[in-house]
Specification:
Elements: E1 6-10, E2 14-24, E3 28-30, E4 43-56, E5 59-69, E6 74-77, E7 81-86, E8 92-97, E9 101-105, H1 129-157, H2 172-185, H3 194-213, H4 222-230, H5 236-254, H6 261-288
Length: 289
């Protein structure tokens, strides 16, 4: 049964509703959380809490409590609340508790004694130096912190010390040639790491193409990269060599293709030839200007 059949609260106040029942010891009592809102205008706070009040003669007296609140005044009839009794043989019975009624009121005003007054204007006082200084110091500290954060992010991005002078970036072709020589020195394919070997060669060429031709490559497929390059002034021989190298790399990375020794030996030189050839075109354009 519900011990709080009818109760009254103020708007925003909480009320604990308690439900008592007696069950045999060998029966499992399950009191699931009611739906929220319990009813339109009444909300559930937290989860149900069940305690044992007494244990006599093989029977338990249980009390379950739920907390509700409301932010709208009015009279509410709470819906019946179900609980379940699970017997040892697996049979489940349903027990219904009366939700009761809840009155939600506002604070009453005695209009016979209430005397309204005009709203007074806000009083203002002049600021003093002592009041201004902490805010000025805080603003200065915020600006200084933002400056150092910006320098820190830039230094991390450029991989240099926070207070060091900016490092002059090498041109794309120098970075690419240095990277290809470093890949060659690691002897990856000679140690049965062909997939890593071709992956690093292609990544180096992708970065070079982005810096040299100002196109996005890292998120594109081989076909998309070649489409982007097709409209640029690249010699057909060099374009074909790049296409063959990228296609071979795709076979090795995605189709588990086993390249020949000749393929592996020619991969780095083919990449270097493409960089040197396209860099030469860039140099001629600079001279023409």
């Amino acid at each position: 049964m519900n011990t709080n059949v009818k109760d009254t609260i103020l708007i925003g106040d909480h009320r604990v509703l308690s439900f008592k029942t007696k069950v045999p010891k060998d029966v499992k009592f399950i009191f699931p959380a009611p739906s929220n809102p319990v009813t339109q205008g009444v909300e559930l706070i937290g989860q149900p809490v069940t305690d044992t009040l007494s244990d006599k003669g093989g029977e338990l007296e249980l009390e379950t409590r739920i907390t509700v609140t409301s932010f709208d005044s009015g009279s509410y009839t709470l819906p019946p609340v179900p609980a379940y009794l699970q017997h040892s043989d697996g049979l489940v019975d349903t027990v219904w508790f009366d939700g009761g009624k809840l009155e939600v009121t506002t604070i009453q005003i005695d209009t016979t004694t209430f005397k309204p007054y005009d709203i007074k204007g806000q009083l203002t006082y002049p600021y003093t130096v002592d009041e201004f200084l902490p805010w000025a110091g805080l603003l200065f500290a915020a600006v200084l912190l933002g400056y150092f954060i910006r320098r820190f992010i830039r230094s991390r991005r450029e991989k240099r010390s926070l207070f060091a002078k900016p490092v002059v970036q090498d041109p794309p072709y120098i970075v690419a040639l240095r990277g290809l020589e470093e890949i060659r020195s690691r002897k990856l394919w000679q140690n049965n790491q062909e997939k890593l070997y071709y992956t690093e060669i292609v990544d180096t060429l992708r970065l070079y193409l982005e810096g040299r031709f100002n196109i996005t490559t890292m998120e594109k497929t081989t076909g998309e990269i070649l489409d982007s390059l097709s409209s640029l002034r690249i010699e057909p021989k060099e374009f074909s060599g790049l296409k063959d190298l990228l296609t071979l790399a795709d076979y090795v990375k995605f189709a588990k293709y086993k390249p020949s020794k000749e393929d592996n030996e020619n991969a780095i030189p083919a990449a270097i030839r493409f960089v040197n050839a396209t860099f030469s075109e860039d140099s001629e354009e600079e001279k023409g200007r």
